[in-house]
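Interim report to the steering committee. The following record documents the input for DNA-(apurinic or apyrimidinic site) lyase (265 residues).
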Amino acid sequence: MPEGDTVWLTARRLHTALAGKLLTRSDLRVPRFATADLTGRTLLDVTPRGKHLLTRIEGGLTLHSHLQMDGAWRVFTPDERWSGGPGHQIRAILATTTHTAVGYRLPVLELIRTSEEPAVVGHLGPDLLGPDWDFEEAVRRVCADPVRPLGEALLDQRNLAGIGNVYKCELAFLARVTPWLPVGDLPPGVPERLIATAHRLLEANKERFDRRTITPGDRPDRKLYVYGRKNQPCYRCGTPILRKEETGKDRISYWCPGCQSGPTG
């Protein structure tokens, strides 16, 4: 599932290409909105909210989309060939005279009134990359349930919006605890440092797209500490990284048994 930094950059690319321009084509390929025609309306802005994308359109309309596991928006110029998947995976097309945005494999795509946006994003906690970022409130929400595993607390978008599986695993490694350690068992001051680190890392990576880097330095072969590194040696202690898939949750955890203390599921 894309992380908040990926969604932020996707929104910026869509906004840069389309905002302030008249739509010359609109095609929403979901049954409920297949007859909706936005042609002739001005696309006002594209705003990220956690992992949600809000594309606001003249006339008080918002196209709400969520990438979930493998959705994507791609932007093309008129002379570019569309790439991002086969045609049957296209769920949305928004075009101006200069650019075309194509949404592939979008599991959530709905046209709503802009005034109804709180119904789809109002439940979210402080946005790590948003203008409303509230550090103290994010800490309060994460620590509100002390028996909850750290990984679950970080992934819960009602606590703070923008963290996905990659950051969950990397943040737990940086805290030297496993993702299954109850939040209340974290040493004093660790929740605060963890959330401050999450904010710093997403800010640092929000313009990198597929070049996300958590480790220090600029080595292309050492971008992440644990995520995706099953059986490879830990950069700190050399212990092979472990991987565990949580059945029914579509979540995979990576951790170093040498560096990280706590339960293992």
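Residues 46 and 89 are 22 Å apart (CA to CA). The committee is asked to note this result when reviewing the revised timeline.
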